Amino acid sequence: GTPIADPTIPAVPGEPGATFVFSQVLSVNDKGIAVGYYGDSTLSQHGFIYNTNTGQYTFLDDPSEAFDNGVEVTQITGITNSGEITGFYSDANGVFHGFVATPPRG
Fold first, then answer.
1. CA 65, CA 61: separation in Å to the nearest integer?
2. Is residue 44 a contact partner of residue 15, using CB atoms and an 8 Å limit?
């Protein structure tokens, strides 16, 4: 495998001072767009899209994600060649829900 640079994680509301702990790539499409998630020092997990061609990260959490006991989770687990992503997130009751997201057509 080819190692990728760990992300510089963004500030997340509700997680002041959170630091990077690990990342995991779960899928990559034929265009070199990879998806996965990273874990931070608050035990939360956040989704990302990583362009293997440019080395650029885009961070993306499901808008319905919510804190449960100080932890929130979004994992992006798959991506199609057309850019649709799949994954799951946790809600305020600690229940996990799946999602499919389609990129806007422009």
1. 7
2. yes
Whole-angstrom distance, CA of residue 50 vs CA of residue 45:
16
- Give the model confidence (pLDDT) of 10-57 as tens digits: 999 999 999 999 999 999 999 999 999 999 999 999 999 999 999 999
Cβ–Cβ < 8 Å for 16, 29: no
Residue from 45, 26, 32, 9 nearest 83 by CA = 32
**What CA–CA distance (Å, rounded) separates 90 from 74?**
7
3-state secondary structure of 37: strand
How many whole angstroms separate alpha carbon 1 and alpha carbon 18? 28
* Single pTM value for the model: 0.93
